[in-house]
Amino acid sequence: MEKFFWDSFSQFSDRIALQEGQREVTYAELGIMADEFVSNIDTRSLVFCICRNCVEAVAGYVGMLRKRIVPVMLSESIDSELYNNLLKIYRPQYVLCPKEFCPDVEESQIGAYKLVRNSFEAIDLYSELALMLTTSGSTGSPKFVRQSYKNIQKNTESIVSYLGIRDDDRAITTLPLNYTYGLSIVQSHLMAGARLVLTELTFFDRGFWNYFKETGATTFGAVPYTYQMLDKLRFLRMDIPSLRYITQAGGRLGEELHLKFAEGMRQKGKDFIVMYGATEATARMSYVPGDYSVSKAGSIGVAIPGGRFELVDVDGGTITEPEVVGELIYYGDNVTLGYAEIREDLSRADERNGRLETGDMAKMDQDGFYYVVGRKKRFLKLFGNRVNLVEVEDLFSKAGYDTACVGRDDHMAIFTTSNKNSEMVDFISAKTGINRTAFTVFYVSEIPHNESGKVLYSELQKLIEV
Amino acid sequence: MSNLEKYNKAFCEAFELTNPDFASLNYMGIEQWDSVGHMSLVAAIEDAFDIMMDTDDIIDFSSYEKGKEILAKYDVEF
Prior knowledge:
heterodimer, A: alpha/beta, Rossmann fold, B: 0% strand
């Protein structure tokens, strides 16, 4: 049987695995704490895990992997309507959450967390199913990605190898655990025997930078909109001697900012690593090696070790020549099992067989580096949140607004025939939890359709790009 | 336009507010003033006064009143 990193902490026994404030937890202690945490939960149960960047949440997660309990990772700030809907759909036997999260009676308590037992019946989980993560939780969709034990192990191995993560690295948490990028940083550092510096503080808290310096953090990850903030905060002018390299994923940074950070970090003798991935591929699919961060700015790089890309034209044929755009297909052991939309889906086996259609349109240059040029379907990235425009239109439609939505990075244009501007922005901002500056409503007398009744999104897109 | 008017206008624009209780505004105190809103506010203020704030000042810019103190360093008088 394959050896998993979460079963092998004893090799790092006395090294520090987690730090939270002044509190330090060694790998040996983490193993014990993790097992204690789940001692009241049966193997192959389904658990809602409410995430916070703290020792308890990481220990609980690790404990669940070790005992083959399946967590559904959810944000602590999840919309209550969505949460109740998910409870109804998936009927988890337990909820592992911060003490303040819900008023339910607790089964047991460990530190800042508690375990709540539900009376839902047992479930037949597919034997290799390890974990459930959302792709677009912000629009209220109950859709999850099903990840296997092998997916997590293989993708983590690859990340540790291409980033060259060392056991003296210290990663400070800047992303939530319920987000695949945040979780992958936790997993890759635990595999490498490195230290995780846990915090809920953000780049805008003075405490964050003090904590960063006190703990001697060597790396962090951030998404495009946080890089815009870091740019605004003149991050490149800060003097942080302990910092070794930083990573970016979670959407397109844009060539200009990519180049700015690549050059700025290079001047400090440090690396800036741009990566590309998806929850459907566990986490990572490609990266731009540090040596190429300047010369290949704007690229998503090359496939990670153990993976490979293919470009496919509209007829399904493979594109081999450079500079020709096709749909980006990824192959590798980190391609996840498939989606779940109802409880019964958790019994399903692997439906992708190592092949993922990314939905991104891309091209390859002469040197074998890939560039994403657009989306095949209608998704936007708004401040790090993947938003499905179809789902947004559905939300509006249920609330009685007729809309057609288009957009570009960090901005959604909502075209509507309902003349209710500001309340629509209030509505969608509240529903998605995304800052209202991401949305603009445009009143139109009629939404353009073609002869077969399909919305002409390209016409609307032109209107916002003038 | 006076400096106070410019300052107030920057808040109104960044957070899409009309006639707010300015003195009560603070970071995370209203829905619009989250980390994304903070970026818009800093941009609006830098544009209004043609200045470029230091990292520490951007981080410390935690309320309407605190912001006035910070802008004094950049020779913006109210």
